[in-house]
Amino acid sequence: MQATIKWVDGVRFLAEAGSGHTVTIEGPPSHGGRNTGVRPMELLLLGLGGCTSFDVMNILGKARQNVTDCVAEIEAERSDEVPAVFTKIKVHFKVSGKALKEAAVARAVSLSAEKFCSASIMLEKGGVEITHSFEIVEDE
Prior knowledge:
N-terminal domain of TfIIb; three-stranded antiparallel β-sheet
């Protein structure tokens, strides 16, 4: 896996993944940013959310659950001291579908958190307290 980060101007950068996809990264306005890109620490949260969401949907698909929507809401707290690392992250899944089995959703979230999501497991090993929860929304 590889990535390239190219400085554009000011505190804005163009990040290109090995897959060829790009994203603009920019520092906050307090550091000269113009709000044209995602902040670096936000990108870490997005990566965590994408990683665990991929796992949950993959596991639920294999369990033949009829999922119509899945949203991971993530809240994070950071240290007040520099470096302002993440200290706590809460991941809450809202899984919608028809006749979803609570045990299947719980298992998917648990397996992602404890076995498959490289991003969350790596952050936990670095001292971040990560909690996972879920709710099921029954489609009518």
